[in-house]
Design goal:
The complex is a heterodimer of chains A (about 525) and B (about 350).
Chain A: H1 2-20, E1 34-39, H2 55-64, E2 69-71, E3 80-82, E4 85-90, E5 96-101, H3 115-128, H4 134-137, H5 146-149, E6 150-153, E7 156-160, H6 167-174, H7 184-189, H8 198-203, E8 211-217, E9 221-226, E10 239-244, H9 248-257, E11 262-263, H10 268-276, E12 280-295, H11 305-313, H12 317-322, E13 329-331, H13 353-363, E14 370-376, H14 379-393, E15 398-404, H15 406-414, E16 420-425, H16 433-439, H17 455-458, H18 466-473, H19 479-496, E17 499-512
Parallel strand pairs in A: 1-10, 1-11, 14-15, 14-16
Antiparallel strand pairs in A: 2-3, 4-5, 5-7, 6-7, 8-9, 9-10, 11-17, 12-16, 12-17, 13-17
Chain B: H1 2-10, H2 18-47, H3 52-57, H4 63-72, H5 79-91, H6 105-140, H7 145-159, H8 162-176, H9 201-208, H10 211-248, H11 251-258, H12 263-291, H13 295-300, H14 306-315, H15 319-347
The chains are: A alpha+beta (about 525), B mainly alpha (about 350).
């Protein structure tokens, strides 16, 4: 249906642009103090920061909850900045960080933000142990030890990790959604059956951020209201309404009519069309998602170093970027997305069939080799698979593409059964370890280890020393040294790994010309509504 | 004890009253139908290649987290045991929690179904009020230009993809002419003004006397309702025409004409009267189809109805929501069947 939809909507809306151009000056506008956004928000399952782990949920959370440290939307590259924590110190053994809490902050309820709230929020996230809890529990926090490891004392909160991790690693993790600080008093007033307010917080908010949640109607809308007491000043947009509009063509019509300010899910055809419309501008931002190919190292041919290299020369990076991925993805061949700490911008592989042939001949790959690629039923992934299939055919390799649902394909990928996997990966939290720890880390490559969460394990790749280097980088306290270590890991990874990282996601948002300062969050965080002006 | 037995022998049990027997038979058939529907949906839900566990824990969860949730959902138990547990809950009116948004499915359905009900009702009204007269006229003036138009209208209604027609409608009436509201049920200015009593905004705003909201809601619903109404009209007019043609060639019509009755009396007083029962079935079926929710219409018009709810749930492997939605749709079909049966009794003297 997707291809059909895109084709039809592109054709219909192409006609629309031609017909509506003379009338566009008469369009309506949203109120000047209100930001109306069309977005697909059907991925929201909960708004509890201890549980929320989806894109649209993170967008809400970033604007509703403050964290100990956070990213400044005006300068994401600067990394984490003080927020609820005014400052922090690290103990000599590198295991204890003591945060001093900023004075004068209040929750939306009017309750003051205290060290006790911070202690409660972090302990709560560990105790509830929901899906994103690993972001905190990887530091050794458990439900049993939180009373000793996360402790408030007067105006300070101390967290003690099980090992001396890099401070930047710990603080980066605290900027993710699960680091959101909740109003202990309000939350516990709404506790049911010892759930620490989890049920209530799924659909309500108890934060101190720039906005408070008015309502979340699943698959319909999220409404936020400005917090006039926000510590950076009352936001310009008094109300933010995010409407669930599934269809790209409908989003574009709403935008061109002026009934919404921002459309976040336009397909390439509608982006091209909207760019021509009067009063509409297109804004690009790099996001964290990577598109990659992976080759099973259980396969006798694919595990040869020359073959791993050859497979990377058979990807038509430029061709795909300039055709069906145009504007949506950009070439990127490293596992850390650009704008991440430690990211590098080296893309040495190009589409070179001759070179691939040489490498394959050197490896002694037999003519007529057949391999199977698994791909989930998503249009762009299938198109990538088909392009790759054509390229492999030129060197005499037959790629059989198996298209399936997430269950079918992921089950086989996790069971180490696929020769080739064509898919995407997005970072879980804004620290380089989130990707290094899955692409380049595999301490036990045996089938029995069942480390299904690690991409290196799924592809049966013994990382050739990168596991140790990754483990060292995550405990390196010197930030510059850490950056160097990741550059080195990625350099070795590019050459030796069975992964062909191909593209990084670009989000293209179409918006009315009067919308300014909307930051979508880059590769590291989510959207910020508070700086927006109209 | 003996006395009771004697009494029983002297007064054999009286046969059930016909109305009571009728009600019991109806209730029995509803139960069997619902049980069958639930069983089939449940089994399909369990064997289809989607994974509710993966939907909850995410792609990168460890095997132990995966296994814990698998067990928590009861998926480790035999399918028949799972079904019996589910059946027990449904009988108590509990469709379970949505696996994804962790809200009770019954609450979700209570939120999305009125949106579909409002749209489908208006669509059916349009279909009936335009489709029936069009079908009758087309039959009476068979072969005339109006008959040709009716056939083209029906043909277009059958063959045009609703997605394309919906987008064209939006483009012309919203995008270019600005006569109607855009996707969604209300403009942002009118949202959350009227308290939700029935969930149907037209009705709620009328009850509250908020006519501004009513007008705005009407401007939003009129296009999708007309679109659905058109599809309903295509079906109803075609069926009406064919029923009427059959009646118009019957001997009693000729007799009525020979007796000198006016054409109007012949058509509406005799022929049309005789197709009412068949028409009820057609209209009920058409209404039930619209109440299932037209997924594409709901997607194009950002209409948060039951069709897109079930589809989203299905794609997200939220089987509780899918089952809950299916049960509701099953109930709708059954209720409309009963309602049609009741109307038969009113309109068809033979069934009295």
């Amino acid at each position: 249906m997707n291809a059909m939809n895109r084709l039809l909507s592109g054709a219909v809306l192409g006609l629309a642009v031609a017909l509506t151009a003379p009338m566009s000056a008469a369009w309506a506008e949203t109120p000047p103090n209100m930001l109306v956004i069309a977005n697909r928000i059907d991925d929201i399952t909960t708004l509890d920061p201890a549980e929320s782990f989806e894109f649209a949920g993170s967008d809400v959370s970033r604007n509703v909850y403050m964290k100990l440290v956070n990213f400044d939307p005006a300068n994401l590259d600067a990394g984490y900045q003080p927020e609820i924590a005014e400052s922090w110190t690290v103990s000599d053994d590198g295991k204890t960080i003591t945060f001093t809490i900023r004075e004068g902050l209040t929750f939306h309820s009017g309750n003051p933000v205290t060290a006790a709230d911070v202690e409660f929020s972090l302990r709560r996230a560990v105790i509830l142990n929901k899906t994103p809890a690993f972001i905190l529990t990887q530091f050794g926090f458990t439900a049993e030890n939180v009373e000793e490891t996360i402790v408030a004392d007067g105006n300070t909160v101390t967290i003690t990790t099980d090992k001396p991790y890099a401070t930047s690693f710990v603080l980066n993790c605290l900027t993710s959604t699960i680091g959101g600080i909740v109003d202990m008093k309000t939350v516990m007033e709404n506790e049911v059956d010892g759930d620490m307010g989890n049920t209530w917080l799924k659909t309500n908010s108890a934060g101190s951020g720039a906005y408070k949640l008015v309502s979340w109607k699943p698959n319909e809308s999220v409404t936020l209201e400005a917090n006039p007491d926000f510590y950076l000043g009352a936001p310009n947009m008094e109300r933010v309404i995010v409407r669930h509009v599934q269809e790209s063509a409908s989003q574009r019509l709403l935008l061109e009519r002026g009934d919404i300010d921002v459309a976040r899910n336009l397909n390439p055809e509608d982006i091209a069309g909207a760019a021509e419309a009067e009063g509409v501008k297109i804004y690009d931002e790099l996001r964290g998602r990577l598109m990659y190919l992976a080759f099973s190292q259980k396969h006798p041919e694919l595990s040869k170093p020359e073959v791993r290299q050859a497979m990377k020369y058979l990807v038509d990076y430029q061709g795909m970027q300039d055709s069906f991925l145009s504007g949506q993805y950009t070439i990127h061949q490293n596992f850390l997305p650009r704008t991440f700490l430690g990211a590098v911008d080296e893309n040495p592989f190009t589409y070179d069939v001759e070179k691939a042939k040489e490498l394959l001949a050197a490896a002694g790959v037999p003519e007529g080799l057949e391999i199977e690629a698994g791909v989930r039923e998503a249009q762009e992934r299938i198109e990538i698979a088909q392009t790759y299939q054509n390229a492999l055919a030129q060197v005499g390799i037959k790629l059989n593409i198996t298209v399936g649902t997430a269950k079918q394909i992921l089950a086989r990928y996790r069971a180490r059964e696929l020769d080739v996997y064509i898919g995407a990966w997005g970072p879980d939290y804004p620290d380089p370890h989130t990707n290094a720890g899955t692409f380049a880390y595999n301490p036990d490559n045996s089938d029995e280890a069942q480390a299904t969460g690690l991409l290196a394990w799924r592809n049966s790749w013994d990382t050739g020393g990168l596991t140790e280097k990754t483990a060292a980088a995550v405990v390196e306290n010197d930030r510059d040294k850490r950056v160097e270590m990741y550059a080195e890991i990625q350099s070795q990874f590019r050459e030796t790994s069975p992964f062909a990282i191909m593209f990084q996601k670009i989000e293209q948002a179409a918006m009315r010309e009067n919308v300014e300062n909307l930051n979508l969050g880059g590769a590291t965080t989510a959207v910020s509504y508070w700086p927006v002006t109209k | 004890m003996a006395l009771t037995e004697d009494k029983g022998e002297r007064h054999p049990r009286a046969p059930l009253a016909p109305w009571l027997r009728g009600t019991l038979v109806t209730l029995g058939s509803i139960s069997v139908t619902m049980l069958g529907l639930l069983l089939v949906t449940f089994v399909i839900g369990r064997v289809m290649p989607i994974d509710p566990v993966l939907a909850i824990v995410g792609e990168r969860a460890s095997q132990s987290t995966y296994d814990a949730v698998y067990e928590q959902l009861g998926l480790d138990k035999p399918i028949i045991v799972q079904f019996l547990y589910y059946l027990g809950d449904v009988v108590r009116g509990d469709f379970g929690m949505s696996l994804l948004n962790a809200r009770p499915v019954s609450e979700d359905i209570a939120r999305v179904f009125p949106a579909t009900l409002e749209l489908a009702t208006l669509g059916t009204l349009i279909g009936v009020f335009l489709g029936v007269p069009l079908g009758v006229i087309a039959a009476v003036r068979r072969g005339s230009w109006i008959d040709q138009i009716a056939r083209v209208v029906a043909l277009v209604g059958y063959s045009m993809p609703i997605f394309w027609l919906g987008l064209m409608g939006l483009l012309i009436f919203y995008g270019i002419l600005g006569w109607v509201g855009g996707p969604g049920r209300l403009d942002i200015f009118y949202q959350d003004i009227v308290p939700s009593r029935t969930g149907m905004i037209l009705l709620d705003s009328a009850i509250a006397g908020e006519w501004g909201v009513f007008r705005n809601a009407f401007s939003h619903i009129v296009l999708p309702a007309s679109l659905l109404g058109y599809y309903s009209l295509a079906y109803i007019s075609r069926m009406t025409r064919s029923f009427m043609l059959e009646q118009m060639s019957a001997e009693y019509v000729t007799t009525a004409r020979v007796k000198g009755m006016s054409e109007r009396a012949v058509i509406w007083g005799h022929a049309f009267k005789n197709i009412r029962v068949q028409l009820i079935t057609v209209i009920a079926l058409s209404y039930a189809n619209l109440l299932e929710g037209s997924v594409l219409t709901e997607i194009i018009f950002s209409w948060p109805g039951i069709g897109s709810y079930i589809t989203t749930a299905l794609l997200s492997a939220d089987m509780n929501a899918v089952l809950g939605g299916t049960v509701v749709i099953g109930l709708i079909f059954i209720c409309l069947n009963i309602f049609s049966d009741l109307l038969y009794k009113v309109f068809d003297p033979r069934s009295k």
